[in-house]
Specification:
378 residues; alpha+beta; nine-stranded mixed β-sheet; four-stranded mixed β-sheet; binds zinc ion
Length: 378
Amino acid sequence: MSEADDLRAFLFDAVEDLGGSISECDGVLEVGLPPEFSERIELAPRFTLTCATPAASHADAELLAPGSYVLERFSSLMMRRGRWDSARLGSPPDDWVTEALRAHGLDGSCGLEATLESLATARIWAFTFRVTLVADEKREMFFAVLVREGEASGWIADWEPLEVPLEPAPIALDRERLMTSYRIAAETLTEHARPEVRAFRKTCLTLLDEEVGRIFRYFDRTVDEIRQASPADSEGLLRAIEAERGRRLVEAAERFTPRAQASLCAVRYVEAPEALVALCRRNSDETLARARVDAWSRVIRGIQCASCNRTQGPWRVSQLGAVECIQCLPMANGSARPPSHRPSGTHRRGRKASQGRPRSPRGCMARSRAAVGSHRHR
Ligand SMILES: [Zn+2]
């Protein structure tokens, strides 16, 4: 996504969140805000914006760009509404590095040992995204995507470690740093969600194919029966049946066409201790890889599986001395199983897994739209 796309996406999210209206025509955004918000935000109830140089026909449209007045007004309101906060992880437990390494199989038991090289403070942006897949059913998933300033890619974090108490640490919002991190987070999310979106799309198109086949078989049979019963005066009836078939096909396409949407729900900036560790084969001084782990998300970053290029552990070391993930190098019989993780994307932030609606086997909230009556019954 370009910067203009990012800004546009942010604005659409923000306006919808405020209960306003926003539409785009010829590159010009028309925004309508509820009176209570337009006053608080010190903007007119209706105004136009553009991401490019305003066309002559829309000379009054304001330019939407980093640092522009409109964007600043929206950012500050979003912050006041709790969609943004900044905090610090001040005092993690003394053994957090050991614990984080152990959780990823780097405690020596799997042939890899980690040595702490240095400690620093990581500046991390956490973006909570809601991903919605809609067709005949609706699936909703929430992801925490973290980006450390200075790194070119982000990671999907588990929810549990993120729920530790943090100390408030107000900072001035730096829009440029935020947008850089947001772009990385959006790319990380797209990459992560791609297999699920593809699978959903495939399922929907298979269902659509079956439904279309069913409709054709039903109407072909009906037409045959009518022709056989009264071949002379059935033309009017056949035209009506054809029209009905067309209507059913359009309805099926509407019902089973998959749509995927991601929206940003919250942004958090957190400063947390971070360890740089060197990974060696057990009883060897040769460094195989260097990795970073922060005390907040506890995710080990900087290791890539030599076989499949995955960047998520737990990790092991092969006979040849290569670092590989547990998928590529399963544990020997009788070894302990790797610790289980609950990745984000499985439930809402802040809700305990044992509370609320039981999770579906797919690991997300899925329900048939038919079951909740949100599409017309036939
Ligand atoms: Zn692997």
